[in-house]
Amino acid sequence: MEERPAHAARAAVVVLLLALLCAGCWSSPGAPEAAGSAPTARTAPTTPATPGRYDRYVALGDSFSAAPFVPRTDLAGGCLRSDHDYPHLLAQRLRVRRLVDVTCSGARTADLTRPQHPFRGSTVPPQLRPVTRGTDLVTLGIGGNDLDLFGTVVRTCTGLRARQPAGAPCTEELRRRGLDLDRDGATITRRVAGALRDARRRAPTARVLLVGYLRVVPAGGACPALPLASGDYPLGRRVAATLDAALRLAARRAGVSYVDMDAASRGHDVCAPRPWVNGSVTDRSRALAYHPFLAGMRADAREVLRVLGRA
């Protein structure tokens, strides 16, 4: 599959921003930014250091970490970052002295080391920039946007359903395009492992964790919340499994802990009675379409705490 930027996803962010301008969102604290300046990271209040407490936690990642529309959402230059994303929940539970949350919707692995442009006229600094020697905790959730794997299921495949609802139009179309999940998985592993090694070099004493993705596609069956053609659900499961395996291998190669959210969210996919991820309809008071609910963010935080031995 030819690598391509997720232009449609970035265009959707522009529409969401326009809708949000009068929707009661809050902005980052501190001094107002000059017009055209780069948006600042969301930073938690500083508290006195305590033995055993993490002093500086830097959270990196894409929209599955930023949690757009999980109230309340900061526009953050187009990043749509929630104050109830799992980094904030985790920092509160760990009583982190300072949280630097630079998670950003639409982020790809390359955006960790170069400026990101969530929409025209907006520039977000490289996410790895605040990871310094004084950082003692780093979480990263990235990879799903790199080869448009996430978009393949929730945009391409749902868009092709009308061709043949009882068939597998997306599977057939992607086969014609030369989809190679083994190759794509290897590429994501290489990129994410490199990013993790970079984080470890910048913060050599930090605990670094790679956080996997919450489950979107059900293990079996179908539902209106994920409107795929009946024969394309197996493809959705293969894409998710490829991404999970790629991230697991990246963590192993970089020597960091992997937070397996695919396993942790079994039974809480989009089609489940109690989903941790929203379906096809955006709810501006709860979650962007196909993105985590608050329940998903709480689950992420719980699992990270478990891996840290602090549950």
CATH topology value:
Rossmann fold
CATH class: Alpha Beta
Measured between the Cα atoms of the first and last residue, the distance is 41 Å
**Radius of gyration from the CA trace?**
19 Å
SS-based structural class? alpha/beta
CATH architecture annotation: 3-Layer(aba) Sandwich
Proportion in helices: 25-40%
Low-confidence stretches: 1-40, 45-49
Keywords:
311 residues; Rossmann fold; 6-stranded mixed sheet; two-stranded antiparallel ribbon; globular; disordered N terminus
Q: How would you characterize this protein structure?
A:
By secondary structure, this protein is of the alpha/beta class. It has a single domain (7-13, 39-308), classed as SGNH hydrolase (Rossmann fold). Helix content is 36%, strand content 9%. It is built from 9 helices and 8 strands. It has helices spanning 7-20, 63-66, 86-94, 149-160, 169-177, 181-202, 233-254, 261-264, 294-308; strands spanning 42-43, 56-61, 73-74, 81-82, 98-101, 137-141, 207-211, 257-259. The protein has a 6-stranded mixed β-sheet with strand order 1-5-2-6-7-8, sandwiched between helices. Helix 3 (86-94) packs across helix 9 and helix 4 (149-160) runs antiparallel to helix 7 (233-254). The protein is globular, with a radius of gyration of 19 Å. The protein starts with 6 loop residues before the first helix and ends with a helix.
